[in-house]
Amino acid sequence: MGREPDGDPWEVAAVVAGALEDVGARYAIAGSLASGVVGEPRSTIDVDIVVELESHQVDALAERLSTRFYVPVGLIRRAVQERSSANVIDTLTSLKVDLFMAGGTPLDRDALDRRVATVSADVARPLFVHTPEDVLLQKLRCYRKGGEVSDRQWRDVIGIVRVQGARLDRSYLTYGAALLGVTDLLERVLAQQ
User: Fold this and answer.
1) In sequence order, which residues have a C-beta less than 8 Å from that of residue 133 and are 6 or more positions away?
2) Chain segment 160-182, per-residue pLDDT in tens
3) Contact 187/181 with Cβ under 8 angstroms?
4) pTM of the model
5) What domains lie within the chain, and their CATH numbers?
6) How far apart are CA 114 and CA 74, in angstroms?
């Protein structure tokens, strides 16, 4: 008998990632789950996934997820068209999975090209996760968009820089920060180290 879902975000992410792979959509886990892999772990109540999803894949994705997830197909279609986001909710654990459609930022394609397969202790198979640089840039962008007041986002940024240190690709960070308009924030966090 299989184990019951326990609300583990990695297990929920693996289910959605499997459905995305089944329909041929590239993805990368982002947000707090990703920053916990490349920086300092912390608890999270949702899953963020950047996905290259096209209109013709939406129905097949909804079909694969609908046995376990609340899937607002119309909102997903709109998110694909607008290159914005939509979410699905796991009916077994109540965890929300935010699907961010690639194309919403100038770096999305680069980030998906750079993604890496990572194995979590909680999931038996590899899942694609953003690189440390791409997670750092996303976190800086979220911090800026949120009015630069989120201690949680800034702690994630500092944690990534602290853990990754000299391994960070500084030239890619400079390039990405300029595209996203966060060069000043990148310089600030790097100066703290």
Assistant:
1) 114, 168, 169, 172, 173, 176
2) 999 999 999 999 999 999 999 99
3) no
4) 0.90
5) 9-130 (3.30.460), 133-191 (no CATH)
6) 30
